[in-house]
Amino acid sequence: MFRSRRLIIKFSILYIITVLLILFGWTLGGLRLISSKVVNEHKDILYNCARQIAVELNSDGKESITKSDFSSMFNSIKKYMSVRIITSDTEGKIIYDSEGRGDLSAYSLNTDFFSQMFLIDVTLEGYVDEPFMSVSYPVNSDMTAMGYIVVIQDMERINRTSNEINSALWPYVCTLLLAVTLLYVFIYLSVIIPLNRILKTARNLCNHDYSSEYTIKSRDELRGIYDAIKYMGKDLSNLEAYQKEFIANVSHDFRSPLTSIRGYTDAMLDGTIEPENYSRYLEIIRFEAERLTNLTTNLLTLESFDNRGMSLYPVEFDINRVIKQTAASFEGICTKKHITIKLTFDLPEIFVYADKDKIEQVLYNLTDNAIKFSHNNSSIYIKTHIKGDNAFVSVKDVKDEGIGIPKDSLSKIWDRFYKTDLSRGKDKKGTGLGLSIVKEIITAHDEHINVTSTPKVGSEFSFSLPVKSM
């Protein structure tokens, strides 16, 4: 359970970090930016004020400035600005202070203070005790310094302005936090929860639990991944069931002949079977040994297809000739069951381009299958004809002479070890692998094989092969 919550915990930590970054970013960066902007604005205002005063004084053409000259000018400025204006001569002696101090002769400031154009958060001990920001501007007449104009703004007013702007912007910061929260909620609902469900479903698959109790309603890549995992779980479930069935079938098909072989051998050794009957039971033992050989050969064939893939070595050959050779190999069993194999070819020779050995195996398996499912004194038809760029080969039981395959078994006959009940009762030699091998070989050639069948009537298997281009 803890592991399944790790993603949620990480996501929650990421959300908290994002919120803290916004808050600290605004507190440290945003407020500093606002304060800097306010200071620059006040600096420009104070500079323009000092410059305007100096320009007015310079325009009079005086060689020095007096208190009377400055006081009349400040009265008009005072109506619009809350600033303090101090004037001094070139030696630092204060001539005028807008705060209205009486005797200024006792106050004299260091000329370094006036020579610095801009100062912030400073005090003048014994004269201006509260922190202030100031702009100094020289007053000149004919290129000769007459004194200095200093415009002062107290820092409390500047800080108050910054705080007012900050208070006005906080709703926007809160809106940003709300938007980030909604974004994270959306990501949580649309990404984290589906990912968590995908993780739990995948973990269930690892524990061989192929059921899925979750659903993902979105139509995105996560839904595709979840559906793929569910589909994989279904395939794994089918594979597990197939493996159990495969093992059961292999065990059954190996155990039956081995039991017969051991039983008859023990009976012959302990004298239960009389010597004059040995030949009969030795035939049975040979028959069961042949079953084991066929089963082992087919299993090895399919195993090679699965593990290494099917290697094809296509060559040009006459399919009609191969059919004749295959039919001839069944002469013995056909004679014994009184079955006739009838061959019908549209053309004397039909050259195809395929793996000859594997196509021979296909023809052998289909013919063997047809013989196995045919009654005695019946016929089997093998036909070839050309249509377009393909040659078609069909193997069928003649009407009213074949057993046929039940409808519900048609889709399963290609499965490994699948046998209809008729197959198990009719011929115990079948392994249930022959048609699987046929399907694998034809599919590897990128061709198709089809079957049509009617119970108690007969079956027809047909497949296609590419005709060799001239």
Q: What keywords describe this structure?
A:
five-stranded antiparallel beta sheet, 11 helices, alpha+beta, 12 strands
What's the helix and strand layout?
Layout: H1 6-59, H2 67-78, E1 84-88, E2 94-97, H3 111-115, E3 118-124, E4 128-141, E5 144-154, H4 155-206, H5 221-269, H6 278-308, E6 314-318, H7 319-329, H8 331-337, E7 340-345, E8 351-355, H9 356-372, E9 379-387, E10 390-397, H10 421-426, H11 434-444, E11 449-454, E12 458-466
Parallel strand pairs: 7-9
Antiparallel strand pairs: 1-2, 1-5, 3-4, 4-5, 6-8, 9-10, 10-12, 11-12
Structure description:
This protein has 470 residues and is α+β, with helices and mostly antiparallel strands. The protein has helices spanning 6-59, 67-78, 111-115, 155-206, 221-269, 278-308, 319-329, 331-337, 356-372, 421-426, 434-444; strands at residues 84-88, 94-97, 118-124, 128-141, 144-154, 314-318, 340-345, 351-355, 379-387, 390-397, 449-454, 458-466. The strands form three sheets. The chain has a five-stranded antiparallel beta sheet. Strands 7-9-10-12-11 form a five-stranded mixed beta sheet. Helix 1 (6-59) runs antiparallel to helix 4 (155-206) and helix 7 (319-329) packs across helix 9. The model is unreliable at 421-428 (pLDDT under 50).
